[in-house]
Amino acid sequence: MSDLIIVESPAKAKTIGKYLGKNFKVMASVGHIRDLPKSKLGVDIDNGFQPIYENKKDKATLIKDLKKEAGKSETVYLATDPDREGEAISWHLAYILGLDGAQPIRVTFNEITKTGVKDGMARPRSLDMGLVNAQQARRILDRIVGYKLSPFLWKKVRRGLSAGRVQSVAVRIVVDREKEIESFKSKEYWSIDASLFAAEGKKPFPAKLVEADGEKIELNSKKDADKVLKRLEGAEFKVSAIKKSTRKKLPAPPFTTSTLQQEASRKLFFNSRRTMKTAQELYEGIELPEHGAIGLITYMRTDSLRVSNEAKQAARELIEQKFGADYIYKGERVFKSKANSQDAHEAIRPSVPHITPEQVKKHVTTDQYKLYKLIWERFMASQMENAQLNTVSVDICAGKTDTAGKTDTAGNCLFKANGYTVKFDGFMKLYVEESENHENQENQSGNEPEVSGKAAALPKLEQGEVLKLESIAGNQHFTQPPARFSEASLIKALEENGIGRPSTYAPTITTILDRQYVERVQKQLKPTILGRVITELLQEHFDNIVDTKFTAQMETDLDKIEIGSEEWTKVLSGFYGNFEQTLTKAEKEMEGKRVKIPDEPTDIPCELCGKMMSIKIGPFGKFLGCSGFPECKSTKKIINEAGGECPKCGGKMINKKSKKGKPYFGCENGKDCGFMTWDTPVSEICPDCGKKLFKKGKLYCAAENCGYKAEADKETAEAED
Q1: What is the pLDDT of residue 407?
Q2: Please, is 662 exposed, middle or buried when counting C-beta atoms within 10 Å of its C-beta (0-12, 13-18, 19+)?
């Protein structure tokens, strides 16, 4: 008689089955098998918020098969994912299969490797009801907010809308940023920039004016700049001070869920959903010739920076082998996790560091290779020696001298030039964080240059050396408003504000985009008119629901439930009492009122009556409708031009979606032309035939009988979402 092991995904079942052999039967639950009903609230609020779970209808056959196998098995082990959601799935499985959760039937795998699976099987435990109750509390909270608040929005705005405990806060964050941008008043300022040659220099180097007459320079107009430039006519530029120092640059820590999504967005142009889908595949198992089925990374939903000693040692061995002993960090590299992080799992790292990206490249998809390479390099770099940088800061005095050799103090101006060279590249030999602004740098003063993977060196300079002026000019600048959020920066903002947890970032962003509360505009997130209307309505009547501090406190309460310091029904009761009163008050204040969603005007004339069309938002998305409605009911689809031209007929390329929702690009002339592609049209012109190019990893020309190909530069490397 064999033992039964139940995991969540078929891919993981296949991998684990190969490690455990014939004495084990491994099956997959394929996610939840029991949940709250879709058609009603499913929570008995009057009786301690008891959830009313139902078996999922589409899992009826699977449940029957699981019961059959459980009945034949000596022991049933529940091996769902090692987090709150996974613990809850195991709890539901135990209920359906009649298992005693107090017995050691629960096993978890931080990594799907032979060692990881055997270690997990060697330490079975009882179900962790703290984790289960934290998941139940989250699920019920979200159900209450969704089922109580969404109908309010249907009555007061439009049917089909939804509100969510986390999604509504995320939308508010995006809306607030847009309001900052709109209210921002740009201010003009000028800089004085010189280009100078050293006595023995072959290339000029830049220097910026920072002081005049011993005071920090502030130039607010061209008049101010011209006045300074006039003073500097005929000035002599002399090196007055040279400050040299050596500083170290520390590597970024291994990835957490949040930082993985951020860096994958910046470096790979992956959206959060694409990143997590690919990470899940890498965790569950990949078939490799030399290793068989193996999970390539540790569990990918974590906010811990902890790394096992075994993994550190494996990394050190490989670093010495590939780069030499000088590249091994001499001390004990420990990264401090954030105060509210969950430490159940390690940071995201390669499960077997000796398996390099190049070894797996032929056996994985392009996305899997790119993400594994990113994770592997980041982890390996985190265990490498610090980089050593030689920095130099140079003061350059500009002044005039009279015939007696005395300096004209009226012309005294101080310029600064900064530079650095890499004394020892350390971890930078392998990996440099894309943002370049992480908080792990030491000894960095405000006057030192920003450090990236490329050296920005100054020529050899001596104190008292007179420099040759190549050019000097005043340059106009304007203060810039804060940038719109990208997916990466929104995830960072959610994490910093304590909104959601590692498992919720990607689905939250997916939801607010799908609900059309937020839209992507050139990779930036912009609130739609609908998103703004809903946010303003919720702020007016349900301020707590869209308040970042309140939502963060709820996350803290869920964490307390997990560790057993808070009772889950007490947390729900505390939330619901205030929520119910607020809902009742809002319904009274809004009685007989409806909120209109403003239409967005366009310059597109109506084909029936000639009035201008407006962009309207319906249950199925945006469309063009006549501004003369209801007299004129003309409507039209919105065509989203993708840029570029059809290589077949020269028509415009249009963004389209397949029946399954996968985006592709087609010619505006449709069936008359017939050209379509999954690849992204770009603005570059083919140098051979003059047609617009497309991108699939590399640039290529799709014109018949052309065949031109080229590498894409960084600006052209758009995501293939």
Answers
A1: 52
A2: exposed
